[in-house]
Amino acid sequence: MKKNIFTLLAVASLGLALTNCSSKQPVERVNENSVTDLSGRWNDTDSRLTAEEITAEMMDHSWYSTFASENGAKKPVIIVGLITNKSHEHIATETFSKDIEKAIINSGRMKLVQAGNMREEVRAERADQQNNAAQNTIKKFGMEHGADFMLQGTVNSIVDQGKKEKAVYYQIDLELTNIQTNEKVWIGDKKIKKIVR
Hints:
With 197 residues, the protein is α/β, with parallel strands linked by helices. The protein is built from five helices and five strands, in the order αααβαβαβββ. α2 (44-60) crosses α4. The relative contact order is 0.15.
């Protein structure tokens, strides 16, 4: 009787182990630039492509050539401000902001300065160096590049849903403001529409 119970428990344990092994979801690594759209929601492809396209549009606008001609071909200094999510879903706007910053830097046509908490961390390091770094390596106060322009924006969405289909529309609006004059020098947008069946 004990052998039967032991055998039954061993078979049950083996069956449970095999069930757990077979229920694991397979994972496939793919190229980070490949288009993956599983749900129809905002995703990494939307973030990256929007940042690249809207930054290229920003640099092709007349504000850029006007600034360069008025400032001896100097590269404009940009700071990326708040990009607010007003859409129906959670969007990691910090990731989108980083995609925009990367596109600005990779263009080689503009300079980018640090914003927000990261700027404060850099300033704290500079302050710490005043007391703790070798004299010939101390970074001075008052030498930061002041931004010429601030980029800000919003992400909005509209959802239209029927019985079996859903249309998701995103509109990303960005505005570039001259910090000295408070003049809006450029407004750009990107629209994305997805049908989910």
